[in-house]
């Protein structure tokens, strides 16, 4: 593998690559061997994050009409539960027999059709509300697109037209999944194939907090005293595409919302616009300022409590509590006209109070809350004014 590094606090840290990158690499290699190459020892994968990895191929197996192989997951200097495990792909000209459970994801372009599903060790989605359909395997949208893109490239290079059937599997997946939140999310029987950038950046807490502080300090030194805080990639996309703000003014704070507010105050920032997905920011309405799921969740309990306060009956409250995502909870609330918006208005008022208490009198803070499926869910009273001020360079 060609190593990729980042620097945090003057330390050189090696990046890893996601299970999605592994799946794309294994699929590409298997497709190449199926369509004529003798043996593929390494494969070059381009990630959405702009980094290209040269990955080693293992466990090559061939039979009539199909080839399988594996790529080993590497978490870099921030290994997680999937570090070191094999992510495998079987690519064939026909579906495997006997057929495994779960539906197929499909891609068509001209005369080419590609179908993807999970096999052994890849979790099956059993509850609504995730980015994968119920009854299909937990192969998230970005990894699916990576697999389709890389296999299509192989097919185009070999003038192949027809259908290929791709099964992603992980021999250790079911055992490793016991140390994840998958069962709680309704993903049964294995791991998820994940990744939004294809890259795993080392994120030790001390290094990450130091990086956040440095970013805030640079904004304070070079800017007009206003700052956009966002927990992650989804927030950055919303800031740029929906709010029309320059990401040069933004700092990614990960799950450390409270600590980032503290640092903004300490570095002399006068105004902060916090923009985040409701899956993170709903927690802030209960005073949860580190939104990592290993620290605290409470999203559905918060929504259920506010739902009950807005008139939701016991059955609906129970449905909210059983929801997997905020979007799913809001969908249940649609049974009562206007309830979802009333609940979000209450949540945002409570969130506003928690944020203001944390910031104190020295700094103004406003918030914008969204989900990918529903777009803008709400904002604090002064958010629109602060957005316009930031656009104007203030």
Automatic annotation (TrEMBL):
<dbReference type="GO" id="GO:0032259">
    <property type="term" value="P:methylation"/>
</dbReference>
<dbReference type="InterPro" id="IPR002748">
    <property type="entry name" value="CbiD"/>
</dbReference>
<comment type="pathway">
    <text>Cofactor biosynthesis; adenosylcobalamin biosynthesis; cob(II)yrinate a,c-diamide from sirohydrochlorin (anaerobic route): step 6/10.</text>
</comment>
<dbReference type="GO" id="GO:0019251">
    <property type="term" value="P:anaerobic cobalamin biosynthetic process"/>
</dbReference>
<dbReference type="Pfam" id="PF01888">
    <property type="entry name" value="CbiD"/>
</dbReference>
<comment type="similarity">
    <text>Belongs to the CbiD family.</text>
</comment>
<keyword id="KW-0808">Transferase</keyword>
<dbReference type="InterPro" id="IPR036074">
    <property type="entry name" value="CbiD_sf"/>
</dbReference>
<protein>
    <recommendedName>
        <fullName>Cobalt-precorrin-5B C(1)-methyltransferase</fullName>
        <ecNumber>2.1.1.195</ecNumber>
    </recommendedName>
</protein>
<keyword id="KW-0169">Cobalamin biosynthesis</keyword>
<keyword id="KW-0949">S-adenosyl-L-methionine</keyword>
<dbReference type="GO" id="GO:0008168">
    <property type="term" value="F:methyltransferase activity"/>
</dbReference>
<keyword id="KW-0489">Methyltransferase</keyword>
């Amino acid at each position: 593998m060609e190593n990729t590094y980042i620097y945090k606090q003057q330390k050189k840290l090696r990046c890893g690559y996601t299970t999605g990158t592994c799946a794309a690499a294994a699929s590409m290699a298997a497709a190449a061997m199926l369509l004529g190459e003798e043996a593929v020892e390494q494969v070059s994968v381009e990630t959405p994050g702009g980094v290209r990895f040269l990955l080693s191929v293992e466990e090559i197996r061939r039979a009539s009409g199909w080839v399988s192989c594996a790529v080993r997951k590497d978490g870099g200097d921030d290994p997680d539960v999937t570090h070191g495990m094999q992510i495998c792909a079987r690519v064939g000209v026909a579906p495997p027999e006997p057929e495994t459970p779960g539906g197929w994801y499909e891609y068509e372009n001209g005369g080419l059709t590609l179908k993807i599903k999970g096999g052994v060790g890849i979790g099956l989605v059993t509850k609504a509300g995730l980015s994968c359909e119920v009854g299909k395997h937990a192969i998230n949208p970005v990894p699916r697109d990576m697999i389709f893109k890389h296999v299509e490239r192989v097919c185009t290079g070999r003038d192949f037209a027809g259908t290929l059937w791709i099964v992603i599997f992980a021999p250790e997946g079911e055992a490793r999944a016991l140390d994840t939140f998958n069962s709680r999310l309704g993903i049964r029987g294995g791991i998820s194939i994940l990744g939004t950038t294809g890259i795993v950046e080392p994120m030790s807490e001390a290094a990450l907090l130091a990086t956040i502080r440095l970013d805030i300090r640079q904004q304070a030194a070079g800017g007009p005293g206003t700052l956009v805080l966002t927990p992650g990639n989804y927030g950055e996309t919303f800031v740029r595409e929906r709010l029309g703000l320059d990401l040069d003014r933004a700092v990614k704070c990960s799950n450390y919302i409270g600590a980032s507010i503290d640092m903004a105050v300490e570095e002399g920032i006068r105004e902060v616009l916090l923009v985040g997905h409701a899956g993170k920011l709903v927690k802030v309405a209960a005073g949860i300022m580190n939104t990592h799921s290993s620290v605290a969740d409470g999203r559905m309990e918060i929504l259920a409590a506010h739902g009950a306060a807005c008139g939701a009956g016991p059955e609906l409250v129970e449905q909210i509590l059983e929801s997997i995502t905020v979007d799913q909870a809001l969908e249940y609330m649609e049974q009562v006209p206007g309830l979802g918006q009333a609940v979000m208005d209450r949540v945002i008022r409570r969130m506003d109070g928690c944020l203001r208490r944390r910031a104190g009198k020295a700094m103004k803070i406003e918030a914008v809350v969204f989900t990918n499926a529903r777009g803008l869910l709400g904002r604090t009273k002064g958010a629109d004014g602060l957005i316009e001020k930031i656009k104007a360079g203030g």
